[in-house]
Each structure stands twice: as structure tokens, then as C-alpha cells.
Amino acid sequence: MKKAAFLAFVVFLLIHQSASAWQWETHSTLAEKVCRDFNCSCISEIRDAAVIPDRDFKDNINHHCYNLSIPCKPSKYYSCPKKNSCPAIEKMEDWLSKSQNENGCNRSSRSCSKLSDTSCQKWKDIGIASHYFFDSKVFWHKVQGESYSDCHEPFEAAVEKKFESGDGSNWTIEQCGAEENYSNMVGYVKEFENILENSSASQKAQDTPLLPECGWRCKLRNWVRILGSYII
Asked: What secondary structure, in 3-state letters, does the chain show?
């Protein structure tokens, strides 16, 4: 009986830890913008690398960033951190340092997509680094004691839907006192790109949109989706 209770507790912890990051399309889209802004020509590689910490490493513990110097307003939905702890940024720095010793890609994306080609390794490492950096920006990774099922997961899932549907820039997500919007996400990318420029010889070439604006097809799709939810 005690053994079963212990195993149930372990499973509970793993579920709460393993699902504690931006979801995959969010990570891949953010990393893709970095690649496009730097003309890295390794879009498929960096998109894939951006989910490696969750998918391949099964890293369940290095995604948070507690900073006591940042004001934290107590809430019934979460508790404020008690100590400084930011393994997400430490992991980002490790992978950016590793990327400096790898080759970039200055050729066509087709040639860089070969599995045997290592010329995209630099951007793969940068994609992994971006995962940890962007996770450090998740509101729920800056606080503790929140309900995963009621607050944390619905918040990240709602953001993910915006990236999956390409709803453009006119959106804001609110959940249990936490808020996220398109402008903030663009700001996170710019912050990471500044770090990238300062840590390597790579220089930003342009500033591309994070998500396409929602045209008439997109708006029609959204209306159909909303109508369908009412019918169901």
C-alpha cells in the first residue's frame, strides 16, 4: 500500500514537472523568428531543436527562473518564490557557449537539411538555448505553488492555440491573474537576439513578423471555430 502511494506521488510530480513549459509550436515559432532574423538558413533544424529539451532530454526541472529582485504580488493562485534560482538561464548560457564552437549554415536550407550535414549544428544548439530562455519568461515559471490543471496548463495551451492558428498580433491571454500577449512574445525574442549577438559573431539581419497578420481567411476560420463551439 505504501509502495503504491509512493509511486502515485512520483507520477504526480512527473506530470507537473514535465508539462511545465511553453508548448512545442510556441517554442518552434519563437526559434524560427530568431533564425529568420539572422538569415541562418536552418529553419527546420532550429524549429526541431527548440523542443529537444522536452522531447529528447526529458528535462523536467530546469525551466524555472525565480528572481527575488522582481516584485511578486501574492495571490490565491500561486505563492511567491523564497529564493533565487534560475537554472533555465544557466542552461541557455551553456548551450550558447557550445554553439560558438560549431559551424553555422550559409548555404541553402535544402542542403542544410541533410541528416549527415553538421553545418546547422550551431543553430541547433541555439534552438536548444532558446527553449530554456523562453521558458524562463513564462509567468508560471517565476512563481510557485500554482494549480497546474486550473491555471498553468490552460494558460500555456491558450497561447499555443494562437501560434497554431496564426491569429496575428491582436491577442491577449489571461489566466488566474497571469497575462500574456503578442507584444510580450516579440519582446522575448528581441531580448534573446540581443543576448545572441553579444555572445557570438552572429549579427541580426532583419526583423521579421513573429506571426502573420490575420487576414480574411484567418478571420473566417476563427468565426467558423467559434460557431462550431456553440453548436457543439
From this structure: CHHHHHHHHHHHHHHHHHCCCCCHHHHHHHHHHHHHHCCCCCHHHHHHHCCHHHHCCCCCCCCCCECCCCCCCCECCEECCCCCECHHHHHHHHHHHHHCCCCCCCCCHHHHCCCCCCCCHHHHHHHHHHHHHHHCCCHHHCCECCCHHHHHHHHHHHHHHHHHHCCCCCCEEEECCEEEEHHHHHHHHHHHHHHHHHHCCCCCCCCCCCCCCCCHHHHHHHHHHHHHHHHC
